[in-house]
Write a structure and sequence with these properties.
Elements lengths: L1 E4 L2 E4 L19 H28 L4 H12 L4 H13 L4 E2 L17 E2 L1 H11 L4 H11 L22 H11 L1 E3 L13 E6 L4 E9 L8 E7 L2 E5 L6 E7 L7
Parallel strand pairs: 3-4
Antiparallel strand pairs: 1-2, 5-10, 6-7, 6-10, 7-8, 8-9
């Protein structure tokens, strides 16, 4: 309080009891910590998905990943690992999807190098390991034509196209190799296994080869396959219904 004196204000000292500071209502002893925890939770909500996305992006298949794995797999005596190496090498090629019928020679006949489909991937990678599926499938169909699927109104074998059909490749591997009961257990798949899927919506058969994943996923069964939208090395083994798991030659991996 003050009193006016000659145009100035003189301060009068207050000598009563010290005023008490009132606490804000609703703030308990842990109020500050609650705010901190909420802030951390909100930050984690945004940061963790970004970190996960960055980890996935940094572990996508690269040329360097493929080169490292190919070197390791080629050094093995296992036919399956050598086949996986050939498939990884093939996955880096520029091959446009082309299911057209071509007149080709035999043995070692092939469609134009820059063209192909899923079955051509299988034929080309097996050839890298010394196995000519064109010749083998044609020979077996000449001996046992009627045990192969009768889906194309053919009256006999056709060396231009028979080995380029998934149903024929599946039947050959079932007859001459090893057929494993399909499961969704990743540990039941070995490198170099041939997988046949049925694709929605019409259950069209599709085929690919089991290979290791890149980087930190090298212990997981990934696949190399060729769909209409491109040649891919990806984690897609269980993306479609597995109809058959096949191994050729029928040698158990160590």
């Amino acid at each position: 309080m003050a009193r006016r004196h000659k145009g100035f204000y003189d301060t009068i000292e207050y000598i009563g009891p010290r005023p008490s500071v009132q606490k804000k209502s609703g703030q308990g002893p842990f109020g500050g910590w609650v705010i901190v925890v909420i802030a951390i939770s909100v930050a984690a909500w945004f940061v963790m998905p970004m970190a996960s996305s960055f980890a996935r992006a940094s572990d996508r298949p690269t040329v360097e990943h493929a080169a490292s794995l190919i070197g390791q797999l080629r050094a093995s005596a296992s036919p399956g690992r050598k086949l996986a190496a050939a498939a990884l090498e093939y996955s880096g090629r520029k091959v446009s999807y082309d299911p057209s019928y071509y007149a080709i020679g035999m043995p070692q006949g092939d469609v134009p190098a820059g063209k192909g489909m899923a079955e051509d991937l299988i034929v080309r990678t097996f050839r890298k390991t010394g196995v000519d599926l064109q010749q083998l499938v044609n020979d077996d169909m000449r001996e046992s034509f009627r045990v192969y699927p009768q889906l194309w109104e053919a009256s006999g074998p056709d060396a231009n196209i028979d080995h380029r059909r998934t149903a024929n490749l599946r039947r050959f591997f079932e007859r001459k190799g090893e057929s494993i009961e399909p499961t969704t257990n990743p540990s039941n798949f070995e490198l170099g296994d041939v997988v046949v899927w049925s694709l929605p919506p019409n259950a069209e058969q599709h085929i690919g080869i089991v290979v290791p994943g890149p980087g930190m996923h090298s212990g997981e069964p990934w696949v190399v396959h060729h769909l209409a939208d491109g040649l891919k090395w990806e984690n897609a083994l269980f993306d479609y219904k597995i109809e058959a798991q096949l191994r050729y030659p029928a040698v158990k991996e160590p």
